[in-house]
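Minutes, methods subgroup
Present: GH (chair), OT, SY

1. OT presented the first of two proteins processed in the latest run. Sequence and structure tokens recorded below as shown on screen.
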Amino acid sequence: MSTNSKKIFIAIAVSLAIFVLMLILIFFMPKKSGNITENTAEETDQPIPLPPPSYSSEWEKKKQENKFESHKTEKDSYDFLEENPKIVSQAKKLMPGFSISKMAVSTPVVNIKLSDNHEVLLLFGCEEHNCGGTGIVIAYDKTNNKLYLLTEETESVEEEYRILGNPEEEIKNLLIDYYKNG
């Protein structure tokens, strides 16, 4: 081999080795989140697994005991959020990636009057053509002008969700019940 062909061969071998190393780094190194944001939302530390099947019947009894007044409104969740930018901004504070488009497929808003006369609006929606794993339940406490949010997390095999906003137990149960039973 001539000197020039040896140099070309070495350059190709080194380039190939660098290429292989880059592929190994890209595909086998643990991935880190690209969005590093300061966590300002009050949220539970770990995703909460779904409650056992007996949960629904127990909560149903509590709902009957408290005699919630519940009715669906004429508006669906998407339209309601479009008309209420203050609620959307509260949702964005809890979940920085939130946008109305995450509620494109939505159900009618449910207005619930709790036993202590608190009025809570429940909204549900998910991304269009991608409802699996993108469901969001919003509980808006009209009395206290405070928003709470349940969002699905589908990074694991089990069905899980996060509850944001640190709601009291009654509103937390409303979020879970609406998520499970809609």
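2. SY then presented the second protein from the same run.
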Amino acid sequence: MFNQTNLTNNPKPIKVNHLGSRVEKQLMAGHALAGEFGSLGERLHTLQHATEEVRSIMADALPVEILQNLWVVNVSTEQITLTVTSTTAANHIHYLKQSFIKILQEQSTSFKQINKLKVIVCHLPKP
């Protein structure tokens, strides 16, 4: 029988019921995707809220063009990962990384323990 490993740190494998109904299989797939973050909808809401918070905190430190194209794509207790659409924006944030970490720690209760900041460049296709 085919076993699919759970996405959390739980070593117990998830057994797929190949004879189950379509609804049962979809429920099982949703359970596997949820993992340690809860549902995907909850994760999306958390990241959107974090993005809004980072943008408001950094409003005085970054140009509007960078803020409009900045998103939080991952947050853990010690690290935040941002994505921007240009290499110039990524370099700007990278050079001021320690200052941004300090500002986030001081001005936000959500990011008090952040000590690492990563930046990813994600080029969006032109419409």
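Chair's summary of item 2: The chain has a mean pLDDT of 80.
Next meeting: continue with the remaining queue.
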